Amino acid sequence: MARLGTSVEEPVRQRLLSAATRLFAEKGFESTSVQEIVAAAGVTKGAMYHYFDSKDDLLQEIYGRVLRMQMDRLQRFADGEGTVAERLHAAAADVINTTVDNLDDSKIFFRSNHQLAPDTRKIVRAERRRYHERFRDLVIEGQQEGVFRDDVPAEMVVDFFFGSVHHLGTWYHPDGPLTGGEVGRYFADLLLRSLTPAS
Amino acid sequence: MARLGTSVEEPVRQRLLSAATRLFAEKGFESTSVQEIVAAAGVTKGAMYHYFDSKDDLLQEIYGRVLRMQMDRLQRFADGEGTVAERLHAAAADVINTTVDNLDDSKIFFRSNHQLAPDTRKIVRAERRRYHERFRDLVIEGQQEGVFRDDVPAEMVVDFFFGSVHHLGTWYHPDGPLTGGEVGRYFADLLLRSLTPAS
DNA sequence: TCGTCTTGACCGACCAGTCGGTATGCTGGT
DNA sequence: ACCAGCATACCGACTGGTCGGTCAAGACGA
C-alpha cells in the first residue's frame, strides 16, 4: 500500500509526528495530552500506541530528527570550500536558517530537554557535544591561522553564538518583517566581527 | 511580622517561594506537583493555599521578582557614568552576572513563558519589551555617536546578545571552572567587539 | 473570644497507558 | 480458485493513579 505518488494522504505515523511536533511547540510537552495529539492527527489512541511505545517515544523521535539534520548540515558547511572565515560564516548563517525554517522542532529541542528519559538525555547531550565541538574546531582553526582573535576561548564563542540560535524560537515569527536569511546574515556577521582581530 | 533581622527562620511564604523556585528550575513547572513544593517547604497544602491563590500564582510571583530585579539593575548601569561603550559593557557584564547568580530564577524565566496565564503573559511581555528597548537605546546611542557600527539594526544586536544570556541556564554550572564574572567579561567583550566599526 | 494560620482528609477532573476485540489482506498449501 | 492461518493496523472503553484545589475544623497568640 501507499505506493509512491499514488497516496495523497500522509501515513498515520507521519501524521502523528507532525501533530505532536506542532502541539509540543505550541503548548509544551507536559501540557499536551495524548488525547489531543491523536485528535489532531485524526486517529485514535490505539493507533498511536500501535506506532509508538509511549508519549516520550514521540519526543525522542523528534529529537533524533533534529539532531540528525543539524549535524548533516554543519558537516556540509564546515568541510566545504573556502577560507575558514567563509566556512564559519556560511555554517553560522545556515544554522539560523535551518532553525527558522523548522521553528517548531527548534522550540521543542531547546525547551524539552528535561522531559527526556535519562538514557535518551545522555545520548542527546553527547550528540550535541559533538556538534558544538565541530563548530568550535572551526573557531580554533581560525585562531591558529591568526585570522580570528584568540583572547576569548573558542568554547565561549560557541556558547555565545548558540545562545542566539537557541533564543530564536522565543522571538522570531515567520510572518514578521524579517526572513530567516536576513537574520542568518546579520547574526553571522555579528559572530564574524566579534572574532576580527584588532588591526 | 518578619521584622528585619529578628527572625532566623524564613517565614512560610518565603520558604514556599524558595522551594517552588528550586523545583521549577530543576524539573520544570508542569512536572512539579504542589505536593512536592509544600513537602520541600515543610508545610501542608492548606498553608500554601492560604498564601497563594494557585500554583500559577507562585510562578507569577517569581516572574515579578525577576522582572523587577533585571530592570533595576539595567537602569543603574545604563544611566550611570562613562562613555556609551563603557556603560553598555558594564550593563552587559552585569546581566550575565545577575543571571548566573540567580540561575534558578533565570531557568524558570526563560523556559516557562507558555505556562503563564494569558493576562500575565501579556504583562510580562510588555515589561520585557521595555527592558529590551532600554538596552537597545544604548546601542542606538553608540551608533549615533559613531562609536558603534550601524549596518546591523540595534534590535538585532539586542536579540543576538540576549540569546546568549537566555542560554546560560542551559550550560552554565556554578561549580564549573568559570565564574559568573569571567563569563560576563568574555560575553561583554564579544558584544562590544561585534559593534566595533571597521577602521 | 476573635482573627490568623495551619491542618489533612477529601473532591472531581484528567492523565498515560492497557486490553480485548475487529477488519483487512497477504501467503502458501491444495 | 480457494481457504486456513497469520500478521498488521486500528478501535475505544476502561483502569489505576495523580493532579490542583477545597473545606471544615483545630491551634494559638492577642
Number of helices of chain A: 9
Tally of structural domains of chain A: 2
Helix content of chain A: over 70%
Class computed from helices, strands and strand pairing of chain A: mainly alpha
**Oligomer classification:** homodimer
> Residue-averaged pLDDT of chain A, rounded?
90
> Which CATH architecture of the largest domain in chain A is right?
Orthogonal Bundle
**What is the CA-atom radius of gyration of chain A, in angstroms?**
19 Å
- Which two chains have the most extensive interface, and how many residues on each? A-B, 38 and 38 residues
Q: Indicate the proportion of strand residues of chain A.
A: under 5%
* Overall outline of chain A: elongated
Ranges of chain A where pLDDT stays below 50 over 5 or more residues in a row are 1-8
How widely separated are the two ends of chain A?
65 Å
CATH class membership of the largest domain in chain A: Mainly Alpha
Largest β-sheet summary of chain A:
none
Order of helices and strands of chain A: HHHHHHHHH
* CATH topology label of the largest domain in chain A: Tetracycline Repressor, domain 2
Number of strands of chain A: 0
The CATH homologous superfamily of the largest domain in chain A is termed Tetracycline Repressor, domain 2
